[in-house]
Amino acid sequence: MKASIKPSELEERTWSIVIALPLFLFLVLFSEWTLVLAFFLLSFGSLREYGRLVYGKEEEIFFTGFSVVFLFLLYSSLITVDYLTIFWLGYVLFLVLVVWSLKKPQKMLERMAFCFLGLLYCSLFPFFWVKMGITYDRVSVVLFALPVWMNDICAYLVGRRWGKHKIVPQISGGKSWEGLAGGIGAATLMGLVLTASPISFSLPQGLLSGLAIASVSFLGDIWESALKRRAGVKDSGNFLPGHGGILDRFDSFFLVGPLVYLLRLSWGG
């Protein structure tokens, strides 16, 4: 007989969201500065978690410092048009990374690759949410986030209740085809909110966007599960009770960032 969701677990997850979601929405909607602050802190926190997952203690310290410099460089592009300076500083950062990686020549490529992956996933991808909020409007950030959240919620509930057929048990034993279908179906329907102002997609565009967001969200979830499996941990951190770390909560959200920005850019009014 299929085990039901433990009330204490579901309650813990629910209360965490009830407390954290209003704060997140306030920071996103209040001003451009609070939007930037929210995503900067999320990126920094997720980079700390990522460093603990893939590096040893000494490497983690370097990666954290390197990530902070990269974050400031990335977000400075929002307030300056001196892209030549940004390019030079970015080039210097790359050379610093190469020199650091040479400390362990036999793992040079691995150390550099994991660093680039972390910066892409935890810094650049979520930066597209900020870019959309500033280029267009902050309401768009919330509207595009709704299909992501709906996918996460319904995939979790459907998977826990009816999930029997595992997708990639070698990486995550909790991901099922039933949960995936439930998440995609719910997110596709939630894509209808994208037909509202200020995004104003057509009905087919809204549904296709919801479908695409759910599909990419699943890939983000699997990617983060692979990281945790490699590190031998259940959660990336303890950011939210019942949810784990920032990466556990925002894995899908981060990977969807470039997609929603491109959708807004291509189809938005």
What does this structure look like?
- This protein has 269 residues and is an all-alpha fold.
- The protein has one domain (7-267).
- The chain is built from nine helices and no strands.
- The protein has helices at residues 7-30, 32-54, 57-76, 83-101, 108-135, 138-162, 177-190, 203-231, 246-267.
- The longest helix is centred in the last third of the chain and has 29 residues, at 203-231.
- Residues 1-7 have low confidence and may be disordered.
Strand content: under 5%
Q: pLDDT below 50 for ≥5 consecutive residues: which ranges?
A: 1-7
Class by SSE composition: mainly alpha
Q: How many separate domains? A: 1
Write down the overall mean pLDDT.
Answer: 89
Which sheet architecture does the biggest sheet show? Answer: none
- Tell me how many strands there are: 0
Helix content: over 70%
By DSSP (H or I, 4+ residues per run), the number of helices equals: 9
Cα separation of the termini = 50 Å
SSE order: HHHHHHHHH
Keywords:
single chain, mainly alpha, 9 helices, about 270 residues, about 75% helix
Write the SSE topology:
Blueprint: H1 7-30, H2 32-54, H3 57-76, H4 83-101, H5 108-135, H6 138-162, H7 177-190, H8 203-231, H9 246-267
